[in-house]
Amino acid sequence: MSEIDAVAGDRVVVVLRPQGRLIGEDAQRVKEAVREELTAGRDVILDVSDIRLMDSEGLGALVVAHKVACTEGRRMVLCCLGHNIRALLELTRLHRVFEIEEDVASARTAVGAHR
Amino acid sequence: MREMTLEIRIPADVRYLDGVRSFFRAFLGEFEETLLAKGDIPQLEVVLQEACVNAVRHGAPQEGCSEIGVEFGAEEGCLTIRVRDRGRGFDPDSIADPDIEALPEKGYGICIIRRVMDLVESQRGSEGFVLTLKRFLATRDCGAKPS
Fold first, then answer.
1. Distance between CA A83 and CA B29 in Å, rounded?
2. What is the ipTM of this complex?
């Protein structure tokens, strides 16, 4: 579910692309995967294009991951949002909290990553 | 407005929710560009999935062994979503919206439902729990006034 990008300086960015459903235990697994990367000192691009279903619990998992990123001084960028995930974020006003980019290329540019 | 109701019973298993969403999307297509704006549809789908996931996860004594019922209806100027399960249910009015500034992990579900729907009702009975959600499509009264 991940690929590693080289970046400028000593920062490393990982692209995570979870699949399926971001609910229940699956949401917890994604949260832990993101947390692992952030606490290891890597920035995370979370490509959610393959997420078919996400509910408020999945949203909560992303919130926790965002807070870990802030605590660790890392960046977590969401990208490739479908209509439903975008609606979830907008309805909860969390689109103002998360760093969101249109696609992986834009997210890479945003964090200054190059391959 | 074309009045219609669809009722589906599915095993209490999230794998069946993709199918429910497909039915719902087709159902909403009846009203798109007439009584619903294009941007309303993803929001209504999110509401449906919130209600259904909640029913599957908390309203089924044995996940995979119980059923939930999902009903979509359009009548009297309202779009209605009704989800039935076998759980103890909850009182939507007792749950406050999360404080977004504090970024809590939980509590977004009912907040999402309230922001999209005009009326949220719950009912507990011997047959289980029923969550009824209504969205006004037209000006005719269907039980409450929009805020």
1. 16
2. 0.78
